Structures are given as C-alpha cells and as structure tokens.
Amino acid sequence: MGDARGFLTHKRKDTLYRPVCERLEDFKEVYCQRNEEQSLAQASRCMDCGTPFCNWGCPLGNYIPEWNNYVCADKWENAWRLLEATNNLPEITGRVCPAPCEYACVLGINDDPVTVRENELAIAEYGYAKGFLCAQPSQKRTGKKVAIIGSGPAGLSCADQLNSAGHRVVVFERDSKIGGILRYGIPDFKLEKSILDRRLRVWAEEGIEFRANTYVGRDLSIEALKVEFDALCLAGGCRVPRDMCIEGRAFRGIHFAIDYLIQANKIVSGEKITDDNLLHAKGRRVVVIGGGDTGADCVGVANRQGARCVIQIELLPQPPSCRTESMQWPKHPFLLKTSTSHEEGGERQWSVMTKRFIGKNGCVEKLSCVKVDFSLQGQAHCPLMQEIPGSEFEIEADLVILAMGFLQPEQELLKKLQLALDNRGNVKTDSSYVTSQKGIFAAGDVRRGQSLVVWAIAEGRNAAYCIDKYLMGVPSLAPTHTC
Predict the structure, then answer these.
(1) Residue 480 resides in a domain
(2) 256 and 324 both lie in a single domain
(3) Which of 404, 424, 444 lies at the terminal end of a domain, its last residue?
(4) For the chain, give me the number of helices (H) and strands (E)?
C-alpha cells in the first residue's frame, strides 16, 4: 500500500456540504468536493487488511483497496481505470449509493471506516476533469442487435456492456428523456442531471442508440421488436408504489412520493407542468409517510419549495445510532440515518401508525394517528405491533406524501409478453437472467424487486454477460462477483 499506516495518522473526514441557508435556495448539489490533497490523505487510511470485506460488501465487487492504493500513490489514471473496470456509473454511485462497502470496512471494527464512496467520487471526477473518459467505439461489430427496455441504471449498464462487446444496442424509454430513476426520481440536489447527461453523450458517441418517448407495448409492438432484435432485456424497474387503503385516502392532497419527486425534477429542468397537475409544497403543511431515503428526499424537496412545515412519520421504531449485537460487523446495519434533508428542517416521528385521513370539501386536512409498540414478540421471535391505548393524536396537513416503498413492476408489458412472475409479482428468471420466454432477459428491480442503484448496475452487467453468452456462445464480458 502507499501508506500502510495511514489510518494511524489520518482520521476520517466526512463529506463537506454547502451551508443549509445557501442550499435551501436552489436545487444544486449539496456536496462540496474534496481537493486532491484531502483525497490522498483519506485514501491512505485503507489499511491493506489482507481480506478486503469492502469488496465483498459491494455488489459490483469494486477493487477498492487497489484504487485507494493508486490514489495514495498519486496515480490517479490507474485508479480511474480500475474503477471503470467494474462500475459503469461511478460518478452516480459516488453521489447516491448508501455505501455498503463502508459498513464492511475492516477498519470500521474499531475505528471510523475509510471514506470509500467519497474516494470513488473523487476518482470519477478527476477522470472527467483530465479527459480520461472519451468515446471509444467498438472496432468490431458482431452483427447482433439487442433491445433494452428501460433506461435506468440496470438498463444503461447492460447497454454499455453489450455495446463494448460489439453488439448493436438500442435503449427504449417511455419518458421524454433518458435516465429512468436517475433522471426522474432522485432530486437534483443529490444528483444534478448534467452529471448523467455527460455520460450519456459518451455512450451515444460509442454507438448506443437511445429512443425516448417510446412506450414499448403501445407505441412499438412486441412482435416488431422480436423481428428486429436478437435479444430483449427488460429493465423497467419496480414502479408500483405501496398504497394505504384507509378511510379518507381519496381526499385531494394525498400523493405518491414518486409522482412528487418526478414532478420536482421536471420543474427544475424547465419542463412545463399544468396548474391542474401541479404538486408543490409552498406554504403548505406537509406530512411525509415513510422514514426511508425516498421520504427524506421528499423532505428536502418540500423545504426547498417553501413548505410551511414538514413532518416525516415512520411506522417502525427509531433505529439505534450504532451497531447492536444483532447487527455485528460486517453485516449491513439498520441504523439511524440523518440525511442532508433532515438537517435542513422538519420533524421526525417514529412508531406512528396513520389510522385515517380527515378532510373537508374533498381535501385532506388532518391525519388521525396512534403510537405503536413493537416490544412483544410472536412466533419465530418476530416483533408484534400493538397500538398503545390512549396515544391517539392528529397531525394537520394539506399535502400528504406516501413514501412507503414499491411493491412490484408495472404489469402491463409483462402480461403482454406472457412472462412468468414470482410470488411478489417480479419477473421470474433463471440464474442466467432468462425469463420464461426464450431470448427475453430481465435485470434490475423488475427482477429482484426494489433495491439500490449499485445493485441495479450489478444486475445490468450480469445480464449483459448472460446475453452475450446467449448470442455468441462464448462470452467476451466478465460477470460481477454477484452473478
């Protein structure tokens, strides 16, 4: 390693953010990127542990100790090439990934772990600044064509891999712009869309064809695709949100988080939203139901839009702030997470169940809630939820955002393809990512259910490996260690 004892010399320096008062005035990224000197110091904390559990904790199997070593030695191009070898979108994961690799860091046993995600971002941005990333079209084409349906992280990584193997790749997207959840769903203050656009430009120059505004199954028939392409890959994500079937759900002012976040992205990009469809928090009392990252994103958007007040409620109890006996290293722990959005304002409440919505003249005005307790255990030591008598209370709200996760992929296209589904409604595949229909593959959330961006990228890479093998017999690509 560049400095085998660097972890004794340098302490972890967490991400630096723009001041709250400044970032609330816009949707620009909240991060302040480190300089090279700081990155070298943080990379030196990687301790040459011998068994890199960080590599095991990363779904992509990133060469984390190796590129930390190169950064520490000031060999940035070598670090960049290693990073690009396993990750098609390091500038994205370096911004939005929850970094399971850091929770698996050996240094984290008795000290603060290495800043893996921020090191990754530093390498990616250095590569862009120095011009390391430039279009390199495949010099030899196989004559095979593959259609990717869906342009999120799974579809894009699959397309990049297959294009590099010499296949002709067309990515279909029903929205007006390419990017899937990266474009419409992740707030701009976490991921400015110019970051995505610069990568898309390189891929377009390398030969990937992007067709937006194309709804496969409506604008373009399945039969036409099967005639034109040698293989299809479904990468449409898991987009059916979990709903609440309780009294008052039909009141106006209650919306799904994905609809709210997508519209916020469109407003920032200058796309026109009619007044009848506008979802905006200005001057409104906002309640976000759901305590995860999506809920936190909604809190950040509502604060920027000028909400009068924001409350985020969660059914489960407040997680611990540090590891417990049930969450020992190197497991990924379920810990209390305070995001930049929480730092910007709002209130969080835990162990809260919404019983019904109360409204007037067709519009929501209040939530009727009760506190719940999970201390009792049922069969198989599973906690039982019980309402606490006398704990009923109400929360005033005229904008309620449901951020409780997603259930399954949208079913329309899957039914037209007559694909077999698992018991959760996801596309069922074998170990080679093949669906019940020959020549049709699936990758990402449409196959595994709601998950992380880094898992979607790994899924896309593995699906590309299997598609390449299907088309050519002998694959020219390498799978990730999760395949």
Answers:
(1) no
(2) yes
(3) 404
(4) 18, 18
- Give the separation between CA 386 and CA 383, rounded to whole angstroms: 10
What amino acid is encoded at 11 in this protein? K
| Containing structural domain, residue 456 | 145-239+407-472
DSSP letter for each residue of 121-157: HHHHHHHHHTT-------SS--S-EEEEE--SHHHHH
Distance CA 7, CA 107 (A): 8
Q: What are phi and psi of 401, to 5 degrees?
A: -115, 120
Q: Are residues 199 and 255 in the same domain?
A: no
| Pair type for strands 363-377 and 352-360 | antiparallel
pLDDT reported for residue 200? 98
Query: Is there a single domain that holds both residue 39 and residue 59?
Result: yes
pLDDT lower than 50: segments of the chain: none
- The domain boundary, picked from 129, 164, 193, lies at 129
- End-to-end CA separation in angstroms for the chain: 29
Q: What is the pLDDT of residue 129?
A: 96
Give the per-residue pLDDT at 145: 98
Shared domain check, 287 and 201: no
One domain for residues 394 and 413:
no
CATH of the domain at 81: 1.10.1060.10
Sequential DSSP letters for 42-69: HHTT----SS-HHHHHSTT---HHHHHH
Instruction: Specify the pLDDT at position 328.
Output: 86
Amino acid at 347: E
Whether 135 is covered by a domain: the verdict is no
What span, in angstroms and rounded, lies between the C-alpha atoms of 49 and 156?
34
- At 104 the pLDDT is 95
* CATH number of residue 364's parent domain: 3.50.50.60
Is 224 contained in some domain? yes
Taking residue 141's Cβ as centre, other Cβ atoms within 10 Å add up to 14
Instruction: Report how many domains make up the chain.
Output: 3
CA atoms of 303 and 305, how far apart (whole Å): 5
Cis amide bond preceding 330, omega within 30: yes
pLDDT for residue 109? 92
Distance CA 435, CA 439 (A): 8
